[in-house]
Design a protein that fits this description.
Chain lengths: 132, 223
């Protein structure tokens, strides 16, 4: 099963690769892993006035995992927190044309988005910082 | 592992793999777990010699080669049974796969055990990824390339050591699990111990997978 052109494109030209400082104001960090395959994904959002102004990711894993998180950061930029909550792994599957064996990569990306949003909320609510 | 009724003569099956009345081979039930299939208790410390001996013994019973002169129905059953047997043996032969399989049986699915992701380990893996990228982009024979390589080799050794430590810890949990099963108590303490062990094993197995994956990446890059 070959990767779709979109996956290859995101893999070769990943968007928004990198990271923010975790303790920076308005930054939410999502750190997730897939114990089945050993993939690790870190996704961060920077929020101002309830809107995601920037997003970054770092992924250690297969092409589909990298493409899924790259796409996720593209989609996140400009969205409000509430809109970001609506992003589903199935949207990623559709956009990237992922085959069934790679669906878990999109699930990982959705988990990373959720974790980043939760971390941002937690920090915003003043319940402490960090991702643990 | 036999069905309750013979597919051929419809009499109650009392034998293990064969109908005692018409002597036809019986299909292994789809619900049979691999431990039961190979005739072992649901334990994590299995004797590999015994496991192998049992596998060979059962292979002789089910191997399609011995069914060439039998009816098509019997040939199909022998083929199906041999396939199940092979998968069962491959899964149980490896202690890690065996534990993953047992965890699946005990908890339904991996996702049913709630664990918190090891954030520190993830950070470490991603940082190593960056160093690996730098190394890939560097000139191998340059001073920078050699320095990066040395760093990566040190990291690789450290991670391999950690993997061994994790495996030693897992080994201890395996023994503890078996002892708990052997006692067979139904107390609330036993249930709490069971849940704790499952969670600890899940965490260690996951961390081992993450470490294995980055170690493999390191090994292929600096090989």
């Amino acid at each position: 099963m070959a990767y779709s052109d979109k996956v290859v494109d995101h893999f070769n030209n990943p968007r928004n690769m990198g990271s923010f400082k975790k303790d920076e104001e308005g930054v939410g960090t999502g750190m997730v892993g897939a114990p089945e395959c050993g993939d690790v994904m870190k996704l961060q959002i920077k929020v101002q006035n309830d809107t995601i102004v920037d997003a970054k990711f770092k992924t250690f894993g297969c092409g589909s995992a990298i493409a899924s998180s790259s796409l996720a950061t593209e989609w996140l930029k400009g969205k409000t927190i509430e809109e970001a909550q609506q992003i589903k792994n199935t949207d990623i599957v559709q956009e990237l044309n992922l085959p069934p064996v790679k669906i878990h990569c999109s699930v990982l990306a959705e988990d990373a988005i959720k974790a980043a949003l939760a971390d941002y909320q937690k920090k915003a609510d003043g319940e402490g910082s960090g991702t643990k | 592992m036999a069905r309750s009724m013979c597919w051929h003569c419809q009499s109650a099956v009392t034998g293990e793999y064969f109908c005692e009345r018409c002597v036809k081979v019986q299909p292994v039930s789809k619900e049979t777990d691999y431990f039961t299939c190979l005739g072992f208790p649901r334990r994590l410390m299995l004797d590999s010699k015994q496991l192998e001996a049992k596998f060979y013994e059962m292979s002789r019973t089910f191997h399609p080669d011995f069914y060439q002169t039998k009816s098509p129905a019997e040939q199909t059953i022998s083929l199906g049974n041999a396939a199940v047997l092979n998968t069962a043996y491959r899964t149980l032969r490896d202690p890690i796969q065996r534990a993953e399989y047992l965890l699946g049986l005990e908890t339904g699915s991996v996702k049913d055990i709630r664990t918190s992701p090891p954030a520190d380990l993830f950070e470490e893996i991603l940082e190593l990824q960056d160093t690996l990228e730098e190394y890939r982009a560097s000139e191998r024979d340059s001073q920078e390339g050699r320095a990066l390589r040395a760093t990566l080799e040190t990291e690789q050794r450290a991670l391999e050591q950690r993997k061994q430590d994790l495996e030693a810890q897992l080994q201890r949990l395996f023994t503890e699990w078996d002892q708990l099963q052997d006692r067979g108590e139904a107390t609330s303490q036993a249930r709490a111990d069971r849940d704790r062990l499952l969670k600890q094993m899940r965490d260690l197995l996951s961390n081992r997978t993450y470490i294995t994956s980055i170690v493999n990446d390191l090994a292929t890059t600096i090989a």
